Every structure is written in structure tokens, then in C-alpha cells.
Input
Amino acid sequence: MLKSLTATAAALLALAVTPAVAQNIKAPAPAVVPAGITVENPKVHGASLEGNLEGNAVDREVMVVLPPSYKTNPNKRYPVVYYLHGFAIDGRNFYDFMKVPEAVAQSAAAGTEFIVVVPDTLTKMGGSMYSNSVTTGNFREFIAKDLVQYIDSHYRTIATRGGRGLAGHSMGGYGTWVVGMTYPEVFDSIWAQSACCVSPRTETVESATAMAGVPHDKVDGSGFGMRAGLASAVAWAPNPQNPPYFVDFPIKDGAVDPLVIAKWANNSPLAMVASHVDALKSFDAIGADVGDKDGLIRDDTMIHEELARFGIEHDWAVYEGDHVSKIGQRFADVVLPFFAKHLDK
Output
């Protein structure tokens, strides 16, 4: 069972996760694999993740969904959609909840066959934030380099920018923005579903003090919102000289530390737009959406408006729904058809 969490939790992701990740919510049922669809789950070595101070796994499970003709047409190459999961859920549970094999089958029946790749980026703090951090690991680089190189070398892909799309939900939507802007040469088109963490995060003295006061061995019990804040902190303001978190907290000498807040803002997609206009305009297409009852609608509307301010063309939709109620349906009915229109075949 999945359920929406509080508004605080929805600031990152309201998706359910397994009890093993200390969220105490039952995992989704395994995805149904339609006839003709093949699913593989290789382990991909992340050279970009080696030496991370948090001790996160360097070899990551990846769900690879292959379309119906992959096994029967050995001369055909396929466009690839990389699909990024959100906070406090792993790649396999996200793949299950989004019913990715069914979406791939539906797209194939409509005339476009994709390989869809769902990497696992779960960390000890609950999520990588798809950022480059000596503490967490360079997950932004892992997606754009290690993962893409592995998929292109092991599967019959269209191994060019024109053959690759990038999408994600919540923290994965955030990842879509920041990975896309950082590595625009890798992906042709991008779509962010209900992206979290879009505007620069701030803290009060009280909230920053509370964050710095969470014992390192009590993170899992600190609550969804606090755990998400800690995951963001170690991803955006790492400090290899400050164990056990290896982070600079946003509090110093009894006041909010402006340097740490600036480091956080440096990872805000909204703040990044102005300095990445050329990268954004280089995409063949950009899409974003959010539910009208989603607590993230304000932030997602802000980045839509910022893109428009700079004349960056993009698809934008506000639909009837909350943070999770229609995301699987929209992946099948909106996101994959968007990539079918724009990616090379």
C-alpha cells in the first residue's frame, strides 16, 4: 500500500517504501510483465561512486525493460528512456509502482519501442539527491556517465544523444533537471514529474539547530522530513573533515551559516536556470508536470515561469491529482508518448 504523507514529507516524496528503509509502509505489488516484454536487473559498477564517505554501495541494481521485438529482431537498435526514482524508495519498488513493463508494452502497441532503465540510487540517508558529493557519491555523474556507458555497451541502443531521454518523479524529477542541465550533451529530451527541491532551501536557527542535533545513529527514526533534509545536506554541503556525517550543517556560532545555504542554493534547479540557458535550449524538448493538489505545485510552477522568462520552450501541465495518484498513468500516457515524438528511432 502507498499513501500520501504530510505536507512536510511531500516536500520531497510521498511515495511508499519498504519497512527495511524505516518508513513502515508496505511495498507495492511486483510489476506485471506483459507477454513479449523482457526485464533484466544487472548490477552496474559506479566508478563515480568509489570512495564515498557514507559507505553507499558502488554496484547498483538497475531494472532494464526491453520491448517486444528486442529478442526477435537482433539487428534493431532502440531509444532509451532513463527513469529516476524519488526519495526513500529504491529503483525496484519504483519500477513496480510505476508499472514500467506495462508502459513499455503500451508504447510498443502504439508504434514506438523503448528500452526503459530504472537505476537504484537509494543511499543510507534515503536518497542521493542525484548530486555529486564526496560524502554521498557522485550520483549525478553515475547517471550520465557510468550508467549510460554500461547500457550502451550491453544493449542494442541508439547510442547517441538523439537516442536518449531522461525522466524522473519527485527527487527523480529534481534529478532530471540537475543531471540534464549538467550533462546536456548526453540526453536529447527531458521530462520532470512533480519535481521536488526546485527552489533554494533555507533554514531558521531553530530548524538548522534541530538538524545538526540528530544523532548519526538515529537518522532513520528522525522522521521523513528531517531525513530528507539530512540527505540534502550531505549531498549539497559535504565536508570530508567533519565526521560522522561528513557535512557542514547550516548553523555556525548560533546563526544560520550563509555559506552552507549558498552551497544548497547552488544545487537548486530554479537557481541554475539562468546560468544554464544554452544547455536547456539545446534539448530537443523539455516537459514538466505536477498535480493540482500536490504540495510541490508552487515550486514547479516557478521553474515553468523561469523557463518561459528565458524563452526556453517546454511542455507544461497541471493535472487533477496529488503527488502520486496519477504518476504511473501519466508515465504511460504522457511521458513515453512525449519521448516517442522526440527521440530517434
The two ends are 37 Å apart (CA to CA). The chain has twelve helices and 13 strands. Residues 1-25 have pLDDT under 50 and may be disordered.
